[in-house]
Design brief:
Arginase, Chain A, 17 helices, alpha/beta
């Protein structure tokens, strides 16, 4: 850490507390670096994922659902670690500890300033990788950063807008067409206007406001510390880009108020997550960095950021239900819809939407609707409310028969026990899905079920990674498409609408899409929605969902019968559109280029994936299976 941080005192001959029996790091954190002594913590993971069989945006595949990160030290490794640490001397410049609020504390006791992360914090290397966990006896050299293309492409640059790699000879990103070296600005304008915004909270006595925004700069401190050859897509610039766009559009602060930030309490989190899960997030305050899965990182500020995000969502939901605020936008990170009852995964730590739903119920809401349009299925949210008939969960996501991350969310997943019929999954069978398919699904499935359910508040898990140009979702939803879907949902609960940011990794796409959504909230949205036909693949998905859900929602029966009778003429017959969809279907979904070639991934693809693809395509099932690994 930085030299202005207090060193933690260590007596001569004393062993730091994170060794073996007195480990200060939760079993859920696979590996990391201790802030108190700078030594690598290398537990042996009994259930760490092997090579994933799923494709999609996140590094972990379908198998991550089974991985709970249970770690234990082997005696040989523990003895070696003890001897190694006994000889170490505490360095100056270590963080002393985390304060009760979850932020690292400096000598003067104040939290570190936003955007002032010390240089040493940014460049510290780990030495503990997933390969170290498997090869504890150094039988194989660590190659976690090995990239077989490095010998072919010596010079490359990463797009600041979408993080995709490009060869040095080209000047514009091949994925998003952004100019090399260009970056989005404008956040400083938003930052200077924060003090001008009206603050609302459940405790303040202010007149009702139309729209409130939840934001706190400390959430920008959550970032990946370990230096890697490629940038992580879930990065602080996502919030900066959206904030700058809202300020440039004249929405903030003139047309909305700001919610006073607070960290969620442990008691509130216990209504959603287990004690072990909550403690595992908290313990990252004492780590320079750690990983819950190979793509889900944490640093010393992540616990604070996750609690702020959940606290803002909870207060926004309470304010909306109580009538103090008409609607709201939670501009928060880390995202949450993959976080389940007892696991962090898919970039997510705490489940913000679930926390907000339960806060709404405590504020008086009897029924809560959650619509999740993130391109990935919200497996965590579905798990939390799987048996709850008071929370209706509807998800529209890319699925590809379980081959797109996280692999859950098939149409037949309808809930359990009393919650049967209250999980509605609309699983797209391919990439390239755009406005027409989403709006068609809204008209035929989402809105009829929502009207029958009659929620007291509607929560949108608003991931913008199905947007056109997103490097992970590879779909085709436009900012106008998101605006239309938001307008359609305003009627579901008399306008009581809470939009919570989830994914989305193309900065221009998420900033423009989020701005169009907020325009609807403040009353500036166009609301224009023309009749349009879905693609053939989109119609098949809708028919599949209608067939399953009509037994729980009879209102869908006539629509299903009508579409079956005329399905030959319903979908668009545009040849160019069909060709474009087919192109995206087979080219999208691989995620960033370098994720194809993780440790030993190339050999796996060559030996197994091509043969599996030929077998599937030869079977005549017509399933869209992408060759690439996440």
């Amino acid at each position: 850490m930085a030299s202005d941080m207090k060193p933690r005192s260590v007596q001569k001959g004393e062993i730091p507390s994170h060794v073996v029996e007195n480990c200060g790091v939760s079993d859920n954190a696979c590996h990391g670096k201790c802030q108190s002594c700078d030594s690598d913590v290398k537990p042996f993971c009994a259930e760490v994922n092997g090579i994933s069989s799923s494709i999609g945006s996140h590094a972990d595949g379908k198998a991550s659902k089974e991985n709970r990160g249970a770690c234990s030290f082997t005696s040989d490794r523990a003895d070696a670690l003890v001897e190694d640490i006994k000889g170490s001397v505490a360095r100056s410049g270590h963080a002393e500890s985390a304060d009760p609020d979850g932020c690292l504390t400096a000598k003067n006791g104040s939290s570190m300033a936003v955007d002032d992360l010390p240089q040493e914090f940014e460049i510290e290397q780990a030495g503990a990788t997933l390969q170290d966990l498997f090869f504890a006896n150094d039988e194989e050299e660590d190659d976690s950063d090995w990239d077989p293309t490095s010998s072919l492409v010596l010079n490359r640059w990463f797009c600041l807008n979408c993080t995709m790699p490009n060869v040095d000879d080209i000047t514009h990103c091949l994925n998003c067409h952004e100019l090399k070296g260009s970056a989005l600005g404008g956040y400083d304008a938003f930052k200077t206007q924060i003090a001008q915004a009206a603050l609302v909270s459940p405790d303040t006595e202010l007149p009702p406001v139309s729209t409130a925004i939840g934001f706190d700069e400390r959430m920008l401190l959550h970032s990946e510390v370990e230096v890697k050859p490629n940038p992580h897509p879930e990065r602080p610039d996502r919030l900066r880009a959206i904030a700058a766009s809202l300020a440039a559009a004249g929405i903030f602060p003139s047309k909305c108020a700001l919610v006073a930030p607070r960290e969620i309490t442990k008691e509130e989190l216990l209504m959603v997550h287990t004690t072990d899960h909550i403690e595992s997030i908290e313990q990252t305050k004492n780590m320079l960095y750690s990983y819950f899965t190979s793509d889900t990182y944490a640093n010393g500020h992540s616990a604070c950021a996750a609690k702020l995000a959940a606290g803002l969502c909870a207060d926004l939901a309470s304010l909306i239900v109580s009538g103090r605020v008409h609607n709201g936008f939670a501009m928060v990170r880390p995202p949450g819809h993959h976080a389940g009852v007892k696991q962090a995964m898919g970039f997510c730590l705490h489940n913000n939407a679930a926390v907000a739903a339960l806060a709404a119920k405590r504020a008086g809401a009897k029924k809560v609707l959650i619509v999740d349009w993130d391109v990935h299925h919200g497996n965590g949210t579905q798990e939390i409310f799987d048996g709850d008939s008071s929370v209706l969960y509807i998800s529209l996501h890319r699925h590809e028969y379980g081959n797109f991350y996280p692999g859950t969310g098939a149409a037949h997943e309808v809930g359990i026990l009393d919650g049967q019929g209250f999980s509605v999954n609309i699983p797209w069978s391919c990439g390239g899905v755009g406005d027409n398919d989403y709006i068609f699904a809204f008209r035929t499935i989402v809105l009829p079920i929502a009207a029958e359910f009659a929620p007291d508040i509607t929560i949108i898990s608003a991931g913008f990674d199905a947007a056109r140009g997103d490097p992970l979702g590879c779909c085709d939803v436009t900012p106008m498409g998101y605006s239309i879907m938001t307008s359609m949902l305003t009627a579901c609960s008399e306008g009581r609408l809470l939009v919570i940011l989830e994914g989305g990794y193309n900065l221009r796409s998420i900033s423009s899409s989020a701005t169009e959504v907020v325009k609807v909230l403040v009353g500036d949205g166009s609301g224009f929605c023309s009749e349009s036909a879905p693609s053939k693949e989109g119609l098949k998905t809708v028919l599949q969902v209608l067939k399953v859900q009509q037994q729980f929602w009879p209102v869908l029966g006539p629509t299903y019968a009508s579409l079956q009778a005329q399905q030959g003429s319903v979908f668009s017959k545009s040849t160019s559109k069909g060709n474009e969809l087919k192109k995206r279907k087979y080219s999208g979904g691989s995620g960033p280029f370098w994720w194809k070639f993780g440790s030993k991934r190339l050999l796996y693809n060559v030996l197994y994936e091509s043969r599996r693809l030929r077998k599937i395509m030869g079977s005549g099932e017509g399933r869209a299976i992408d060759l690439a690994e996440p």
